[in-house]
Each structure stands twice: as C-alpha cells, then as structure tokens.
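SAMPLE LOG
Freezer: B-3
Tube label: C17
Construct: single chain, 298 aa
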Amino acid sequence: MFGYVRPSAQRLSEADKRRFAAAYCGLCRTLGERCGLAARFILNYDFVFLTALLWPAEAPAPLCRGCIAHPLRARGYFPANEALALAADESVILAWWQLQDALADPGRGKGKYRAAAGALSGAYRRARANRPAFDRGVREQLERLHRLEEARCPSLDESADAFAKILALAAGETADPVKSRVLEQLLYHLGRWIYLVDAADDLAEDFASGSYNPLIFRFALAEGRLTEEARGSLVRTLDHSIRLMSAAYELWDFGDWSPMIQATLYEGLFLVGRSVLEGTFHADSAALPRCRKDKEQL
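STRUCTURE (predicted):
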C-alpha cells in the first residue's frame, strides 16, 4: 500500500484533527473485525480519505476506548459503518493483488512479499467474498498493467490509467447517481496521481533492480533520477490531476468532512508530491501529518 494521501495538518482545526484520527482508528478496528488481525497492518491514510468521500449521511458518533496498540490510553474512533467496511475490504483486496504483482516481478526479492501474502491470505478471502466485483476489477486492471510492464510501455497515461480505474471502481458503491459520477472522476484522478507519485518514489530502486517504471521509459532516463526537464513535465501532469480532483470535489457537498478533503486536495497532495520528488518523503515528516499517540494530533 502507499500512504501518500494525507491532509495538511496546518489547514485543520483541532476538531477536524480529532475527526480524522477517529476515522483512522475506526478503519483499523473495522479491518480487524472484518478481515482479522493481519489486515490491520496494511492500514494507511489513503483509505481513510476514501471513507471521508463515502461517509454516510447518518453515522454513529465516535466512541472512546483503548485498543491493542494503545491499551493504556483510550482513543476516539468511529464504529464500523458502510464507508469503513468498504474501505477495509477494498484495501485488503488491493494489498493482496499488489503482493501478487510483486511476487511476479523478476526484479524484486520474494521473501518478504511471500510472507506478507501468506499472512494476508485469510483476510483476502473474506474481503473477496464481500466485494467480488471490486476483486474482479482489480485483477483485470493489474493484469492489464502487467502486460504494459512486459511491453515496457513508455506512456505515463496508459500505465497510470490501469491503476486509476481501480480506485474509480469504488464510486460504484454510491447509490446517488450524481455523487457516483463526482466520485468516479475524483477517484480516477486520485488513482492516477498515486500511481505516478509512487513511480517517482520507487524510481531509484526500480532502476537499480531493472524493474519496470514508466518514468524510466517515458523520459529515457540513463540514471535512476529525473532530469530537470523530466521533473518539470512530471510536476505538470501531477498538478493537472490534482486540479481535476478539485474540480470534481466542488460539485458535491461533503459536509463535516469538507475541511479534511480540502486540506488534502488543496495542500496535502502538493506537500507529499514535493517531498517525494525531493527524496525526503520517508525521512522528513515535519511538513506531513502523522497519527501519534496523542489522539489530539495527526
């Protein structure tokens, strides 16, 4: 999984930070309840954002209690609802197929991926039973992406399209036809953005291992880093995806989740994209929100 989709903490009020943290903890609990303990280890920010987009009009208020990770201090969390259940199932399915893709990649070591797949197999079977259409769609698009990888496809649009369509599938769970169309556009371009940011994040590793990375072939890179010209081109296409996400967002009222969504689309994604391109995403967290032991903070 990725974990790139994060709101900018500076844009959130204390109440919004608590709401985000409660959704994060709620998704962790829902993963455990629906898919087992192993599934909780794939928790990341990306699917918390999805729960905010899909949040039901009527949902129970947050509860507060200790958990396996924080047994001595109670933490606020949202109890399971249809948005959390969807995010839990789909994150497990996507993680499972990503592991299968990694196991099929000749440029990567297999040990850690084989162990993770074994631990997640039971969770995947339960999630697949709950979301067979999503599972089928993920498999089809990743098979398409695998064919593009084998062909060493140099097109960013074509390779990113396969992953973008995976996230867009989640919009089909929305009953309102107008909101469904809004979410389809927003999630499609979010998926495209995630795919390209992840490609930039993995560029040096993929270049060294010989694994497929669309940036290598699109820009004919002779080294495992972007040239200034290539970086500028990538920044423009990433920013274009964010603008299209933002345009889709403006077509629907997301209620109490609007501040968090805005903090993600209007600043958080730009911060993450910049830190990935600067090579500081994994080391420098000063500008990025994080869930700490204090439930009041991100």
